Amino acid sequence: MLHTKKIAIVGSKSLDGLEDVYGMIQRVIEEEVGENSSSLVVLNGGEDGVDTMAGEVALSLGHDYMIVPLRGCIHGCNPGKKYCFDHSFRPRSKEIAEKAEKIFRIYDEACGTSTCEVTASFGDELGRKVTRIPVDVLSISR
User: Strand, helix or coil at 135?
Assistant: First the structure.
C-alpha cells in the first residue's frame, strides 16, 4: 500500500503566472514523489498566485490537490468584511501546517511578511520540514 504524502505549497500572489515559478513548483512536486512513486496530495489555501499554480501543476502531473477552506469571522472583527486575520487566515494557516508533512513557501522577496509565512512559521513550530524559496521577480523569466 502506497503512503499518501501531503505537502503544502504556499506563496505569493505577485508570482501569479510566472513560467519560472511554474517550473519551481513542478520540480518540488517531482522531487517529493521521487523514485518510490508515492501518492501525493498538494494542499494550500487556494489563493491566487502560487497556491493556485501549485494546484494546477499537481493536477497536471496526476496528483491530488486539496484546498483548506477559509472560514468566515463570526466575531465581527472587521465590520463589513467576512474575514479577519485572527479568526480566518491564521487558523487556516495552522490547519495547513498541521495537515502537511512538509511545507514549501515560494515567495516574492519584495512582498515582506505574508500569510504564506504564517503557514511556514506554524510548520516550524510543529516540527515540519519547511523550505523557503525566495524569488527575485526582477531576475526571472516572465
Answer: strand
**pLDDT, position 16:** 95
CATH code for the part of the protein at 4-83+96-134: 3.40.50.450
**What is the SS3 assignment for 63-115?**
CEEEECCCCCCCCCCCCCCCCCHHHHHHHHHHHHHHHCCEEEEEEEHHHCCCH
Kindly report the pTM of this predicted structure.
0.94
Q: What is the CA radius of gyration of the chain?
A: 15
DSSP 8-state secondary structure symbol assigned to residue 139: G
DSSP reduced 3-state for 6? strand
Residues 6+ apart with CB under 8 A from 32: 5, 7, 40, 102
Start-end of H helices in 7-81: 19-33, 50-60
